[in-house]
Amino acid sequence: MSSTETKLLVANWKSQLQLLQIQEWLKTFSLQEKRTNREYVLCPPQPFLGYVGTQNVFSASPETFTLGAQNLSVFEAGAYTGESSASAAHSLGAQFAILGHSERRKYFRETSQEVAQKAELALSWEITPIICVDQDQFEDQVHALNKKTRDLSIFAYEPIHAISSFGGQEDPLETTLQAIAKLRELVGDDAEVLYGGSVDKENSLTYLSQESISGALVGKSSLDPVLFAQL
Ligand code: PGA
User: Fold this and answer.
1) What span, in angstroms and rounded, lies between the C-alpha atoms of 115 and 92?
2) Is residue 10 within 6 Å of ligand 1 at its C-beta?
3) How far apart are CA 102 and CA 99, in angstroms?
4) Is 148 within 8 Å of 84 (Cβ atoms)?
5) Spatial CA neighbour of 73 closest among 139, 124, 144, 122
């Protein structure tokens, strides 16, 4: 871990942008000056995964830009109406998948066991899981994963109350760092651990300059390409 190493910024657009807005976003983002030590994962709403994946930002700069899904089916491809499988995401170029986001755990009653199953499927399709854990339950959430999944996943520490859609009440930095240190006792010092929860232009450097924070999972501030490029 080092505070100067490249930081990963994951844009979680949730279910927010439509096709024309996405086209505009990509155009504007490509024109922005970006910080040098950043890598970006763009996670569009599922219906636009294929479209976003064919945009030349990914082929022109594959070491800096990658595509991610926001969720995956708990099932392999098959007769599961409405589901989006890991193999489909893989075929569209997704290299990451956000799994177990608090919104999914809350609104879709996703359990840690399901998150673990999804993560195993993701890995079998060469997709790196970005597993979201929260402040009260991260021990159980991590323990639900087998060792291989734990070793190969990225983790996103997201206190629920700090996520903008759940109120956006940030914790003091010290509290966040203590929680991340505890999480690291479970997932190891070599794991990538992101912070998520109302990361914006004002606070991003505070988080991203921390040695123990490998990057950020960004919701609201990722909707604006000018702002996102400034993080
Ligand atoms: P936020 O979302 O940046 O809008 O708080 C983060 C997240 O939900 O992953």
Assistant:
1) 21
2) no
3) 9
4) no
5) 122
| Nearest by Cα to 43 from 201, 222, 231, 225 | 222
For residues 199 and 168, is the Cβ–Cβ distance under 8 A? no
Q: What is the pTM of this model?
A: 0.96
| 3 state DSSP class of 62 | coil
The one-letter amino acid at 28: T
d(CA 72, CA 124): 13
Contact assessment for residue 200 and residue 220, using Cβ atoms and an 8 Å cutoff: yes
6 lines ligand 1 (CB under 6 A): no
Residue among 199, 208, 231 to mutate when testing ligand 1 (max atoms within 8 A of CB): 199
Integer Cα distance of 128 and 92 in angstroms: 14
pLDDT digits (tens, 9 = 90+) for 27-82: 999 999 999 899 999 999 999 999 999 998 888 888 899 999 999 999 999 999 99
Residue 131 contacts residue 186 (beta carbons within 8 Å): no
Residues in contact with 188: Cβ distance below 8 Å, sequence separation at least 6, in sequence order: 150, 151
Distance 135 CA to ligand 1 centre (A): 14
Q: Whose CA is nearest to atom 7 of ligand 1?
A: 219
Angle at 148 between CA 146 and CA 153, to 5 degrees: 95
**102: number of Cβ within 10 Å:** 22
